[in-house]
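tool_call: predict_structure(chain=1)
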Amino acid sequence: MSDVYHFWTKGQIPSVYFGPGKIELAHVSDEYIDLHEIHDATRIYLDIALRILAPDVDRAAARAEIDVEAAVRLTRDLVRFPSENPPGDQREIMAFFKSWFERHGIPYAEYAKVEHLPCLVAEIGDPEAGPTLHFNGHSDVVPAGDGWTYDPYAADIVDGKMYGRGTCDMKAGIASFLTVAAYLVEKKIPLRGRLQMSIVPDEETGGDFGSGFLVGEGIIKPDFAIIAEPSSMRMSITENALLWLTVRTEGDRVHTINSVGAVNAVEDMADVIQGFKALRREFAGFRHPSLGGVVMTVNVVNGGIKTNIVPDECVAHVDCRFPAASGLTIADMLAKVDAMLDRIRAENPTIRVSYTYHGKDAFRQPPDTDIVRFINESMLEVTGKPAAWLRTDLELDRSDAKGR
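tool_result:
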């Protein structure tokens, strides 16, 4: 999950993370999804859509009739597009989605803040006839990397599991809600409202050109939304604070033989990295029983151009997340980063270090919205059990039990 959820909340849209796949498998090598999770998600999404938009339809009969294997086939088709971000260009997979919508008679519109990151918004039904239920999914995936047993873009099915980058995060979720839309069109089910779907291109890099753009421009403003991110079909209405830092040290580019007295940007960055590790240790004592504690990791470091040249620049990318229960804000964390860098400057007067950042504070939505109730009712009817929370202790205070 990422800061995409912030856009929905900022737009005052009651929203829930609720999708197939295990979140812990989202970015690993040999990412996979169990086929039964795709089947279950398709039937549950159908039940929710009918409950809201076609309450007179026999939901049990519809769940038995819908072709859940169509969702499996569509997932395989989607996984076979290597829609990695970075680098980010999503036009090829979006062309596939457009063709799919056209084949199934589902009207859609394309919106783009930048050309290579188009968004698609498709819908069926009539917004004047009732509420709008929105499903959201992102087409981009993180780079596959190494260490795979199976080809990350072959979508191999082995022992009831489909392997590949994006199976879990989140092409199975998209395939499930698209299969529901195709079923509603095929069966000509009259809707008392509108089913709307957005497919966005840049969740893995923040969402500013996808969900943020669509919500910010007022292109979509449904009554409630389901974000089909992997959550093992458990609900989440909270989001950790997100802080991405790009830290830069500067040095003197000289030949190694002339390095005496020169500032080495890579060596100075090593001091900065140790500073972040010390800052992480400062938060080691805080740990929420459900959501965990403060996470701060230096994930990318680039510096130097040649073995015999002192580097004049080094850049590090730092990812920091912390729950609302920490009591910290982005401003608080930046103040701690500034204090840490000031200590390093005092110890190393020649260091030249600066940073830029992208951040959003933690939040949670109320636990008793209509969409939470609809999901609970459908889960109870389809599985015999109410929907569980993904992050139990943070999703609900004990006094909020009525929304469970």
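agent: Residues 393-404 have pLDDT under 50 and may be disordered. Proceeding to next step.
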